[in-house]
Here is the input.
Amino acid sequence: MAWGLENKRIWVAGHRGMVGSALVRRLAGEPCEVITAGRETLDLTRQAEVETFIAETRPDAIVLAAARVGGILANDTYPVDFLVQNLQIETNIFAAAHASDVDRLLFLGSSCIYPRLAPQPIAEDALLTGPLEPTNQWYAIAKIAGIKLAQAYRKQFGRNYISAMPTNLYGPGDNFDLRSSHVLPALIRKAHEAKQRGDAAITIWGTGTPRREFLHVDDCADALVFLLKSYSGDEHVNVGSGRDLTILELAQKVCATVGFAGTIRTDPAKPDGTPRKLMSNGKLRAMGWTPTISLDEGIADTYRWFLTHKAEEPLS
Ligand code: GFB
Here is the structure.
């Protein structure tokens, strides 16, 4: 299927987030118009506001990159927020898109939709084959509901709605708050501040043994535009790098990039989460898309962004 972007108006919902802002950067190179709405003018958890916004702006397509997101501790601490806000955002946008006759929508999920102990690398058809990881089951259920919403609108109304499941993302625009961030930005901040203070060690959460896959957000945005242009199907599509490493190995890479030569300690009192979460990227590769940014390049790029934008913020 080819869905050209020429003269199309695309609403990027969540354009101030890390993924949304990468999408806006990527779409700037396409012959389309990008529509955005800030939080001060549009609250995505309010159904009436979303209905009015879509009815008035009438986009040709919506990329649903808006979500309440966070790292393992934030997910585990705020289950209601992660479940309710994400369900509200999704149901409001899907329903209003259909009501205003918007026929193209790309929904973004997450690799945590898969069972905690899914066979690795995790193929798309592993969805709903086993129990979820408890630390982020609330977010996972909301994201699974998003996949099902896209499928339901396809089935009942013939809508051209699709879903993509990105792996753990990182890059410019990431959240570096140590209480709510994902691991990669947290490690950059910890290593940077330890180096500045002259500390002998940094402490990482958990045992350091879980394995995670990482994808630079600019690669992710490129894959999403690729899917928007070329994919129509019931099944969601994994978006990953196809490689994983242990959290301890990741910490070593980050320390090397930052120039922190001290010790890396573990804190097994903090949760590890799922032991391994490597997705199969075979489906997307078979369609013709591959990532281009290596993890080493991506960490260096993200550290440069951190130094320019975040390094002067107070410690958290
Ligand atoms: O990135 P992260 O918070 O989320 O943690 P998940 C990944 C791993 O890094 C876990 C360890 O094993 C953490 O214990 N880790 C080590 C740290 N040090 C740190 C640290 O300083 N901060 C953080 N945050 N982690 C999330 C889900 O799972 O992945 C979300 O909770 C979403 O719902 C996201 O799916 C992509 O990979 O475990």
